[in-house]
Amino acid sequence: MNRRNFLRSTAALAAAPLFGHASSTNALNIPKGKAEHCIFIWLGGGMAQIDTFDPKALGDPQANPKKAGSAYPAIDTSVPGVQVCEHLPRTAKLMEHVTAMRTVNHKVVDEHAFATNIVHTGRMISGNVTYPSIGSIVAHERGAADPSVPAYMLIGYPNVSRGPGFLGTKHGYIYLTDTQQGPAGFTRPEFVTQQRMDARQKLLQPLQHRIPDDSLMADYETAQREALRLAGPDFMRNFKLDEEPAELRNAYGGEFGQRCLLSRRLVQAGVRFIEVSHNLNFMNGTGWDTHNEGQAAQHLLIKELDAAFSALITDLRDKKLLDKTLIAIGTEFGRPAQFDGRGGRGHQGTCFSMVLAGGGLKHCGAYGVTDELSKQVLENPVSLPDFHATIHAALGVDPTKELMDGSRPVPITDGGTPVRALFS
Q: Where does the signal sequence lie (predicted)?
């Protein structure tokens, strides 16, 4: 190679992007949706896709040897050619507003916490970086739709996987576990008047000014200031579910359904991202982690999900909010078609289902094709970064944008590409 050709080649190499997905051409071609809010329903434990949104031929855990397959018969839906399990009859009638992403996959199946983290952040746990959750990224990029409410709320138990990571406390969540009481500590005692609150804040101000900007105390002070801003009757009024018609509350169902109803009220109040955890109390003994005997009562979870999910879709549609609100159903991994020794199922990451609904997307009932045992992807694989990129794009967030961890740029997704088939 002569000197001129060498210089031309090295110049081209220097101009090329470090990662193939980060090209400006790709960034310009990212679809941009019109959703304003996201309700992220979390099914902790690992929902069995073969028993819910990707049904296959019936199996038999009682046979000798056990026959691999779905635990329940499949039923038709409002989308021709798309079926779901028989315990999702209400959802089946609304599948024109839904896409079951049947080919989501990852390789973290042995440990629930690691899998929960990768589904929430789109990345593996790192020894030197705490990556932000999808909720915190949306809060960072879009903020609250109304400044009188938080950008990000969690109805469930807190942990680091749902947190802001390197984005800092300002972009974390406000959480609650009781839909009736709302977040703890946001209701002032009756004897503490607004005048007394103002006096207390005035006393705090000289101390707050001494806090270094880039310190843990500064993060704490930010959280404290936000809590003081939200404390009081205006914000807490959003948690008065008894203001809703009894017929609507009954349609949503039990405890989980009331959380979903609350999420709709929070959308109306201006909260940008709400995560709703299902089955905090393990109504079937194991939650969605259906090893061994947990499988026997799995249908109770599916029925509760069906009632709440379908009511949420219908309620948002009736209030002209469905196109503005993306509903996502996430879980840490799926389940194999084979039954274990006591009739349950193990873990599977080669393919599993997560779900999107509403949000102004072009829904098709189901996306992706799996084999006869819902074990391998045959068509249209969806990586977790792709799933995250689809949610971000639906909310008008560029998934290729770089956030800053100190001086280090970190793309919003780890090379994720939105599923273009869902965008007009």
A: 1-27
How confident is the model over 98-145, as pLDDT tens digits?
999 999 999 998 899 999 999 999 999 988 999 999 999 999 999 999
169: tokens are 């406390």
**Rounded distance between C-alpha atoms, residue 267 and residue 334, angstroms:** 29
What does the domain layout of the chain look like in residue ranges? 36-187+232-422, 189-231
Dihedral angle of Cα 398, 399, 404, 409, to the nearest 10 degrees? -120
Nearest 5°: CA angle at 285, between 296 and 63? 20
Strand pairing report for 37-42 and 325-330 = parallel
Question: In this structure, what are the phi and psi dihedrals at residue 54, rounded to the nearest 5 degrees?
Answer: -140, 60
Residue 236 phi/psi, 5-degree rounding, is: -70, -15
170 token code pair: 């300002």
What lies within 8 Å, CB to CB, of 227 at 6+ separation is 185, 186
The band of 214, judged by pLDDT with boundaries at 50, 70 and 90, is low
Report the alpha-carbon angle 114-106-119, nearest 5. 50
Distance from chain centroid for Cα 300? 22
pLDDT at 19: 32
Residue 269: helix, strand or coil by DSSP?
helix
Q: Is 196 helix (H, G, I), strand (E, B) or coil?
A: helix
Radius of gyration, CA atoms only, the chain: 23
**% of the chain beyond a pLDDT of 90:** 71
Q: Cβ–Cβ contacts within 10 Å for residue 141, how many?
A: 19
Out of 3.30.499.10, 3.40.50.300, 3.40.50.1950, 3.40.720.10, select the CATH number for domain 36-187+232-422: 3.40.720.10
Is the model's pLDDT at 16 over the cut of 50? no
Cα–Cα distance between 356 and 422 in angstroms, integer?
Answer: 10
User: Encoding tokens for residue 125?
Assistant: 């746990």
Q: Are 68 and 340 in contact (CB under 8 A)?
A: no
In the chain, helix, strand, coil percent, each to 5?
A: 40, 15, 45
Backbone angles phi, psi at 5, to 5 degrees: -65, -35
Query: What is the SS3 assignment for 60?
Result: strand
